[in-house]
Amino acid sequence: MTSESLADSAAFVSVRKATKMFGPFKALDDVDLRVARGERIVVCGPSGSGKSTLIRCINGLDRIQSGEISVAGAPLMSSRRGLLALRRDIGMVFQHFNLFPHLTVLENCTLAPMQVLGRPAGEARAEALAMLRKVRIEDQADKYASQLSGGQQQRVAIARALCMNPKVMLFDEPTSALDPEMVKEVLDTMVALAGDGMTMICVTHEMGFARQVADRVVFMDAGRIIEEAPPEGFFSSPRHERTRSFLAQLLH
Predict the structure, then answer these.
(1) Please, which residues have CB within 8 angstroms of residue 237's CB and are 6 or more apart in sequence?
(2) Read out DSSP for the chain?
(3) What is the pLDDT of residues 48-100, one digit of tens each?
(4) C-alpha distances out from residue 138 to 115, 134, 159, Å
(5) Residue 127: is it exposed, middle or buried by C-beta count within 10 angstroms (0-12/13-18/19+)?
(6) CA-CA distances (angstroms) from residue 157 to 26, 101, 168, 175, 213?
(7) Distances (CA, A) of 79 to 75, 92, 173, 200
(8) pTM higher than 0.70
(9) Residue-wise over 56-69: b if at least 16 C-beta within 10 A, else e?
(10) Maximum Cα interatomic distance, the chain, rounded to a whole number of Å
(11) Least-confidence region, from 2-6, 47-51, 129-133, 191-195
(12) CA angle centred on 229, ends 47 and 170, rounded to 5°
């Protein structure tokens, strides 16, 4: 077995030479990324750099034209049935909360476990309440999304994803649609989740979160991974000039 295949076998999430086109635009350009079980990765970069496309491809929401992606040793399948099976292992939290407005918080959290996983209503309810307690919003279980703040809605979205018992959590700029005073409550929830050992890939510009939580920070530009390093090295001595320019704009 080659050193490259050994690295893939040890990776919980493996992206190899992934290319994604939107018409003539190359959103991902020969991207390689390995994420170990329990590792916390923060992906950052300028707008249009391919960050969100990368995690959407890991979840099968967008399909790569070439390359390979696998999660927990299972290759990303092109068939609808294969994708649905794989997505049971992947929790996804979007920039916008995507809660069902006609369902209560509790109903939002029990719907997929009951319909997709076939869990009995009582079991799904108990698990949902436990996850709502985990994100410190159990007291809002009987309310509707319109009755909650943006920060509360995003915490519900996180709880809903956790109710599927995912093996990896993907976050696509989860605080960018929030008012500044609501950002901290969502980041605190994510910090607690990271502390539980969840494998996480988070696209964000919250560099304080990256410093506190990330095992590795990945910087993307023009569809490529330009640089990746532990937070200490990434922020104190970035190697690439494009990374230094990005950080100078973001941190000052």
Answers:
(1) none
(2) --HHHHHHHH-SEEEEEEEEEETTEEEEEEEEEEE-TT-EEEEE-STTSSHHHHHHHHTTSS--SEEEEEETTEEPPSSHHHHHHHHTTEEEE-SS----TTSBHHHHHHHHHHHTS---HHHHHHHHHHHHHHTT-GGGTTSBGGGS-HHHHHHHHHHHHHTT--SEEEEESTTTTS-HHHHHHHHHHHHHHHHTT-EEEEE---HHHHHHH-SEEEEEETTEEEEEE-HHHHHH--SSHHHHHHHHHHH-
(3) 999 999 999 999 889 999 999 988 888 876 666 667 777 778 999 988 888 99
(4) 22, 8, 10
(5) buried
(6) 30, 12, 15, 12, 20
(7) 11, 20, 28, 25
(8) yes
(9) bbbbbbbebeebeb
(10) 56
(11) 2-6
(12) 55
Copy the structure tokens of residue 15: 């992206």
Among 5-9, 14-18, 76-80, 187-191, the minimum mean pLDDT is found in: 5-9
Q: Of 45, 10, 13, nearest to 28 (Cα)?
A: 45
**Does 8 have pLDDT greater than 60?**
no
**pLDDT: is 241 or 9 the higher one?**
241
Record the tokens describing residue 95, joined without a space.
Answer: 């920039």
Question: Which token pair is 62?
Answer: 């967008």
> For residue 69, what are the CA distances in angstroms to 53, 76, 151?
13, 6, 32
Could you tell me how many residues make up the chain? 252
Strand-pairing partners, residue 154, are none
Sheet containing 40-44: which strands, arranged edge to edge?
90-93, 168-172, 199-203, 40-44, 216-221, 224-229
